[in-house]
Amino acid sequence: MLIIIPTDTCYWLAGELTGTDYAEIYRLKGRDFAKPLAILVRNYADMASYIDILSEQIEFLKKYPRPWSYLGKRSSQFKLPDFLDGDTYLRLSIRVAESCISADIRDQILYPLFLTSANFSGQNESKTLAEARESFPDIIGIDEGICDLPPSDIFYFDDSGEIEYMRKFS
């Protein structure tokens, strides 16, 4: 079942890690299957279940001053669901609920979830539930007012431990 949830940056369309929810997100958004979805995990400790990440890198993420999405190399511990293409999901884009969703909302959600902005592909992000409902009127949503932070920086650590930005907002 899909749901619209508020994060620090915008409202997101989220679904369970099932083939049904995965396909429905792409269908509703008109999204290209070559563009992977992010995964939302409950907390920082859960990151290591999905990606290879060092404790120092987690500490860096905890202190990062802006919204972020981290691209981590998929962990060998994480059995990729059969419906996902292993080459497309060599790196997983991870967001952590502990850092981007209010405590009240975090406890209402089951994890992990697929996650993408609650707007049609190519359109502006939804900053309110009302905007998200314009695109997805039949999806249940959680209202938390206005999400007003700028879009997340997207980055990973290269083999030498240096940050490589895929997207950075100043």
Could you characterize what this model shows?
This protein has one domain (3-167): DHBP synthase (Alpha-Beta Complex). It has six helices and nine strands. The protein has helices at 19-29, 44-47, 55-63, 97-100, 103-106, 129-135; strands spanning 3-6, 11-16, 38-41, 68-73, 91-96, 113-117, 140-141, 153-157, 163-167. It has a nine-stranded mixed beta sheet. Strand 1 and strand 2 (11-16) form a beta hairpin. The N and C termini lie far apart (35 Å).
Give structural attributes.
alpha/beta, DHBP synthase, globular
Spatially, the strands of the biggest sheet line up as: 7-1-2-6-3-5-4-8-9
> Based on DSSP secondary structure assignment, what is the total number of beta strands?
9
Architecture (CATH level 2) name: Alpha-Beta Complex
Could you say which overall geometry the principal axes of the C-alpha atoms support?
Answer: globular
- Stretches with pLDDT under 50, minimum 5 residues: none
Strand content: 25-35%
Distance between the termini: 35 Å
How many individual helices?
6
Number of domains: 1
Specify the CATH class. Answer: Alpha Beta
- Please state the average pLDDT score: 95
Written as H for each helix and E for each strand, in order along the chain, the element string is: EEHEHHEEHHEHEEE
> Sheet with the most strands?
9 strands, mixed
Radius of gyration from the alpha-carbon trace, in angstroms? 15 Å
Query: What is the CATH homologous superfamily assignment?
Result: DHBP synthase
CATH fold-level topology? DHBP synthase
Structural class: alpha/beta
| Helix content estimate | 10-25%
